[in-house]
Design a protein that fits this description.
68 residues, 0% strand, mainly alpha
């Protein structure tokens, strides 16, 4: 049971290591999904996903800063 708990913690850390990045990507995906339901063209939605996720990644990297 201990090994199973350790595996579960490691999988959780793998997906939620950077809370800002995870929350940002989830917010972007939810916003684009909502806009798509309202009538946003799929090509524009794909562009928003690309730009939004890359922006969230860039901000996350810049917030981490150099590891001296």
């Amino acid at each position: 049971m201990n090994d199973l708990a350790m595996i579960g913690r490691n999988v959780w850390k793998m997906f939620v290591d950077d809370e800002f990045l995870a929350a940002g990507v989830l917010a972007i995906v939810a916003a684009v999904a909502l806009l798509t339901e309202v009538g946003l063209p799929h090509l524009f939605a794909g562009g928003l996903l690309l730009v939004g996720c890359l922006s969230a990644l860039t901000v996350s990297v810049l917030r981490a800063g150099p590891n001296d």
